[in-house]
Amino acid sequence: MHTVSRKSERLVNLTIALLATRRYLTKNEIFRTIEGYEGNDESKERMFERDKDDLRSLGIEIEVGGFDPIFNDEAGYRIKPENYALDLGEISGSDIALLSLAASAWNGQALNAIAHSALLKLKSIGIDSDIDSIPTLAPRMASASSELVAVVEAITTKSAITFEYMAQDLSQQKRTIHPYALASRDGHWYFAGLDVDKNAIRTFRLDRVQGEIALGKKMDVFAIPTGFDLFSHVDEAVSQKIATVDVRKDKAFALRKQALSIIDKGEWDQITIKYSDQTTFLDSLLWHLDDVLVIEPLELRDSIIDVLRTMVVVHGKK
User: Fold this and answer.
1) What is the pTM of this model?
2) What are phi and psi of 246, to 5 degrees?
3) Beta bridge partners of 248
């Protein structure tokens, strides 16, 4: 059985806590609330310094500050949501795969039990946190299964995988792939790599894999090309549309991070954003409640109005 490592859980939880807090957290508060910081003070310090370096290598900058600079108070740490971003351009396919697996700790509807406990602990010691201020740590997954773990393991061990795949014309074919990387678009997982039989790069949607993915017994049978652009291959495989959405100031960071453009409209910002799967995109818009307003396309606007009307009927709200 494959599980997320304790270090990965700690990194995810540290990121969540530093994003959600409304003020700087001291080291002592971090060590008290984040699972995984164990041992004596010196070992905790070393773990924290390594964690900061790991997050920095992924483009996540931890801001250092104090409660009152005049009195030289103890330094504290936080991550500003507006500055949060994962720079995936400089890390390998293996790193992306590991990050994706670690980020599966994020649940589509709320934080998972382990991550949620960090915010509850912050609250228990009198520190306000705001779940809504956390941008998306990972895509809302349409599914998270053993197949996802199999692809991650294949990437990290550089092993081939074999599986039955349903193409867009509903035909099924047996494929043998050297997987290079894993990513997500609009709630669906995709992986890309060399199709051994076709000797060409191909992209696959994980939920179209039929049955189990068989992992090859040999490791290090291929090398991931330097500078492999995973997202360009995913974007080529996904037919995308563009939506125009108004978002309330300082809200909907997950949508803002995907914005193609942002126009300041005072209390609101107007963004343009790509999407492919309308049902999944609707779910992401509804997640932000009245902090978002769909402007166009009209079919998307009509669909979200229909969903809201159905919710009113179901819940009996007058």
Assistant:
1) 0.43
2) -90, 130
3) 268
**Phi, psi for residue 4 in degrees, rounded to 5:** -75, 135
- Tens-place pLDDT, residues 99-137: 544 444 444 333 445 455 555 555 555 665 555 455 444
Identify the bridge partners of residue 193 per DSSP, sorted by sequence position: 179, 202
Q: Which of 296, 284, 288 is nearest to 250 (CA)?
A: 288
Which two structure tokens, joined as six digits, stand for 268? Answer: 């609101």
> Which residues neighbour 170 within 8 Å (Cβ) at sequence distance 6 or greater?
none
Q: Domain-by-domain residue ranges, the chain?
A: 6-133, 146-237, 241-315
**194-197 long-range contacts, CB within 8 A, separation 24+:** 194/222, 196/160
- Inter-axis angle of helices 146-157 and 93-103, nearest 10: 150
Q: Identify whether the C-beta of residue 125 lies closer than 8 Å to the C-beta of residue 17.
A: no
C-alpha 121/C-alpha 30 separation (Å) is 10
- Altogether, the residues listed in the chain come to a count of 318
Beta-carbon contacts of residue 196 (< 8 Å; ≥ 6 apart): 160, 176, 177, 178
Bridge partners (DSSP) listed for residue 192: 181, 203
- Among 151, 170, 42, residue whose Cα is nearest residue 100: 151
Q: Answer yes or no: CATH 1.20.120 is held by domain 6-133.
A: no
Question: What does the block give as tokens for 84?
Answer: 């949060």
DSSP 73: P
Give residue-wise pLDDT tens across range 184-231: 665 677 888 999 998 998 888 888 888 889 999 999 999 988 877 766
* Cα three-residue angle 109-111-116, rounded to 5 degrees: 145
Measured in degrees and rounded to the nearest 5, phi and psi for residue 222 equal: -150, 165
Q: Which residue has the tokens 């193609």?
A: 260
* Structural fold of domain 146-237: SH3 type barrels. (2.30.30)
CA distance 78 to 76: 7
189's enclosing H/E stretch is strand 188-195
How large a percentage of the chain has pLDDT more than 90? 16
Q: Are 112 and 105 in contact (CB under 8 A)?
A: yes
